[in-house]
Amino acid sequence: MSITVSISHKLGKFDLDADFHIPDTGITALFGPSGSGKTSLINIIAGLETPRQGHIEISDRVVFDHRQRINLPARKRRVGYVFQDARLFPHKTVSENLYFGARRNAQKLPREEQSAILEMLGILPLMGRRPAALSGGEKQRVSLGRALLSNPDILLLDEPLSALDHARKQEILPYFEWLRDHRKIPMLYVTHAIDEVARLADHMVVIDQGKTLASGSVFEMLGRTDLPPLAGRFDAGTVLSARIVSRDPKAEVSFLDCAGQRLVVPYLGRPANPNVRLHIRARDVMIAKTAPTGISANNVIPVTITKISQENRDTVDISLRLGHDPDGRHQHDTANGQPVLHARITRWSAHRLKLGLGQKVFAVIKSVTVDGQVADQAI
Ligand SMILES: Nc1ncnc2c1ncn2[C@@H]1O[C@H](COP(=O)(O)OP(=O)(O)OP(=O)(O)O)[C@@H](O)[C@H]1O
What we know:
alpha+beta; six-stranded mixed sheet; six-stranded antiparallel sheet; 8 helices; 22 strands; globular; binds adenosine-5'-triphosphate
C-alpha cells in the first residue's frame, strides 16, 4: 500500500510534471513556494482535476491511467481532503457536516473507531453547533474529522493551518502528530512552512515551478540546501531525532541524547513521549577547530566534516556527521545512516579556518527548536 504519482498537465501557460512515490504511513510534506503547483497536484490526486496524461495509484488501486482510460471520479478514490479554509456546509450542524461524506461511503469506519476520532479531536461538545459558531481551529478540527470519518486510504491536507493564527496552529498541530503516530493512514501535507515540515513530516516531496525536484526522508531532504526552494533559506538545516534523558527543574534545563551526543535545551517539562524532534537551522551552527570554552552556547558537539559545498558567492554549506571519526577517514554525506548536521558559514570563515573533508571539528549550536518550541541557547 503506497501512493505513486506520475503525471503531466497544463494549466493555461503552467506546465505541471510530477513524479514521486510516497510510503503508506506517516506524513509526507509536499513543499514548494507559492505558485509551484502544490494545490493543482493534490486536486489531481483527489480527482478534482484530470491531468493530460500519466498514472496515479493509491494503495495499490489505479485511480487514473490515461493509456488504460481509467479515471475514477473523486467520490470513488477513497481520498480525504482537508482544505485551507474548512469548507463546511454553513446551514448544517457539526454532526451533519461530519457524517455527510461518511454516510455515502460503502466502506464505513467501525463505530468505535468513529468515536475514538471524534473524542481525540474534541468535537463531541460541538456536535449541535453550526460552523458560524465555531472558532477557526474548531472548524479545522471538524474538517479533519469529516475527512477521517469517510475512511479514506489517503488524507490530502492543503495548508490546513495557513488560515489560523499562531495560537490556533499550536492547538491543531498535536492532532496531526496523534494521527501520524497512532493511525496508519498516509497523509500528503501541502505546506511552505519549514517549521511544520520539521515538526510533522517523515518524508518530503520538493516541488518548484511545476516540477517535483526530489523526494526522500525529511531528515535527508531538509539538509539539501542545493534544492532551489530550500536554497538560500535561512531556516534550512537539520531535523534530528533525540530522546529526553533527564531534566533539571532547578536549572530549568533538559538533557537530550542524540545519536550518543548530549544536548542541553531549556526545560521541557514531562512530556508523555520522551522522543522528540530537533530542528537546527544551518545558520545557527558555528564551527570551531578546537572545543571553545567560556562561551554562552551550551551545545558544543564533536563532528566530522563530510561535505563542503558552495552555496553562493558569500556562503558555504558544510555537512557534519555527529561524532569524531576514530580513524579520521572521510566518508560521504550519506554518513551510513548517521545523523548529519548542516552549517552555513561565510566563505571567508571556511577559508580562514582551512576547513577540509574528514576534519574533526566542533559544532557550536546557537539555537535548537524542539518539536516546535524554540529552545534558544540564551538561557
Ligand atoms: N485553472 C487554471 N488555469 C490557468 N492557470 C492555473 C489554473 N490553476 C492554477 N493555475 C496556475 O498554476 C500555477 C500553480 O498554481 P497552484 O495553485 O497549484 O500553486 P500552489 O503551489 O498551490 O500555490 P499557493 O502555495 O500559492 O497556493 C500558478 O501559476 C497558477 O496561476
